[in-house]
Amino acid sequence: MSKRTLIASTVMGAFALSGSAAVSAVTLNDLHKEEAKIHAAAAKSQEKINALFEQSQELLVEYRQTVDQTENLKVYNDYIASLVEDQQRSIDSLQRQIDSIEETKQGIVPLMFRMIDSLEKFVELDIPIHLEERRERIQRLRDLMANSNVTVSEQFRQVIEAYLVEVEYGTKMSSYQGTISSNGTENTVDFFNLGRTAFLALSLDQSSAWVWDNDERQWKALGDDYLASVVDAVKMANGTITPDLIKLPIKAAE
């Protein structure tokens, strides 16, 4: 080869080597870029995985809370259901009682009329303590029974109350003023009763005394031997002297 040809070949070889190095550099840069992209994509994927994991953990916690809440609600619902059943039983019982009210009224109203009739007979046969007051009370009961604005329960309450008042007459010592008829004469007197054991009358001037004879339904005059005792009895009932033993005309039980 000539010298010129050798130089040309050398120059061409240099150009070839330079071109090969440039191509290699371009390829390596591309690889680095792709690797960076892969790393970035992997990092994003890892971030997504981490986010999904955290989300799954939150969902797991929420699920467990929901399960616990569901169990609590089930227990509470069972409790409420038992209360509702108990209330329903009470409602059914009340409804049965309401349905029977009319039947109860049909039975109790005639009973009250019989009680009033019996009370009236008793008052007329009993010792005449507060007689007019007791007669007026019975009349009020009859007027009450004819009043449509008064409930059956209130009517029954007042009938029972009248019976209780009659019971009290037999347990108390009392004195009050009134009039009696003796030997065709009206006398204003102080009445005294020791329950239903003794019923006496004392003239206001304390000069005369009488005792009620329930068998003969009349007043009978007492002798002077009882007068002082009757005076003391009236004073004790009025609270002017302290209670003490006194002699009273009491009819022996048969």
Short description:
It contains five helices and five strands; from the N terminus they run ααααβββββα.
Report on the structure:
The chain has 254 residues and is of the alpha+beta class. Among the domains are: 102-169; 173-238, no CATH class. Helix content is 67%, strand content 14%. It contains 5 helices and 5 strands, in the order ααααβββββα. The protein has helices spanning 3-99, 101-125, 131-145, 152-169, 224-238; strands spanning 173-182, 185-194, 198-203, 209-213, 218-221. It has a 5-stranded antiparallel β-sheet, covered by helices on one side. Helix 2 packs antiparallel against helix 3, helix 2 runs parallel beside helix 4 and helix 3 (131-145) runs antiparallel to helix 4.
Q: Got a strand count?
A: 5
* Cα separation of the termini: 181 Å
pLDDT averaged over residues: 86
Q: How large, in whole angstroms, is the Cα Rg?
A: 58 Å
How many H/I helical runs?
Answer: 5
Order of helical and strand elements: HHHHEEEEEH
| Quaternary organization | single chain
Low-confidence stretches: none
Biggest sheet layout? 5 strands, antiparallel
Report strand order across the widest sheet.
Answer: 1-2-3-4-5
Helical residues, percent: 55-70%
User: Which secondary-structure class do the elements indicate?
Assistant: alpha+beta
Shape by Cα distribution: rod-shaped
Q: Please state roughly what percent of the residues sit in beta strands, choosing from under 5%, 5-15%, 15-25%, 25-35%, 35-45% or over 45%.
A: 5-15%
